[in-house]
């Protein structure tokens, strides 16, 4: 895909396309670009369908295909050497075709670069034609089942709730806009800078997504249900316009929102003392209250019985009694 000229001037870019998680040659070329001084003669040992081990004399690279991404292919690469106590790890993300129509990749990379300035994680090691390689954050994802445990959710032991609330408050307080405008000058990318100056991205993004809706589906029966059960494009645009007018007087501050705080995008440190947010694909300026509410909706565990009938457990939505107050 085509990135902004701004990206090429800021990050380590390589003209390389990786066809998929099993594209061993492509992954190896990417690693050669990131680690140019390593020895590249290797013996390949196929362990199973998800692990490939490359033995590079004193260096062992282990690539593991992670299948928990909802829209992208993710590969974890570990590099072990005798003088390292712990393996060096990085992630290789191959963009999905569907997400490329929904995600502003330049904005994603800009957010990752600035967040690394602020927090020293995650670091973008390389940008290739259809993805990125970046540092791995040690820890485990939060599960909905763990959030339901009393020791993690109920006052006064609300460990995860308190950590997530503190991290989100800190994320919202970081001066992203100032950092963006410092990096994105008029000369580097005037249109991107103009969008950052206008700041609020919620409604332009909604309108863009609405325009991408198909007029029909491949299956005629699906098209009939799509037309009968879903509002028209015109009705959706009217709803967005009404919502924009209603929120003109909203008291919620406009901040850089994560916009995708499902449990799989929250990493808990091994000692459960901190949390980190990953996958900044949908980051954009919006209302802080929207980001909080969007995260709360994840507690209701929306699981789709089929593509048109979502099931939501409303009883799991957080109430005031389970929110820690300090």
UniProtKB/TrEMBL annotation:
<dbReference type="InterPro" id="IPR011009">
    <property type="entry name" value="Kinase-like_dom_sf"/>
</dbReference>
<dbReference type="GO" id="GO:0005737">
    <property type="term" value="C:cytoplasm"/>
</dbReference>
<protein>
    <recommendedName>
        <fullName>ethanolamine kinase</fullName>
        <ecNumber>2.7.1.82</ecNumber>
    </recommendedName>
</protein>
<comment type="pathway">
    <text>Phospholipid metabolism; phosphatidylethanolamine biosynthesis; phosphatidylethanolamine from ethanolamine: step 1/3.</text>
</comment>
<keyword id="KW-1208">Phospholipid metabolism</keyword>
<dbReference type="Pfam" id="PF01633">
    <property type="entry name" value="Choline_kinase"/>
</dbReference>
<keyword id="KW-0443">Lipid metabolism</keyword>
<keyword id="KW-0808">Transferase</keyword>
<keyword id="KW-0594">Phospholipid biosynthesis</keyword>
<dbReference type="GO" id="GO:0006646">
    <property type="term" value="P:phosphatidylethanolamine biosynthetic process"/>
</dbReference>
<dbReference type="GO" id="GO:0004305">
    <property type="term" value="F:ethanolamine kinase activity"/>
</dbReference>
<keyword id="KW-0444">Lipid biosynthesis</keyword>
<comment type="similarity">
    <text>Belongs to the choline/ethanolamine kinase family.</text>
</comment>
<keyword id="KW-0418">Kinase</keyword>
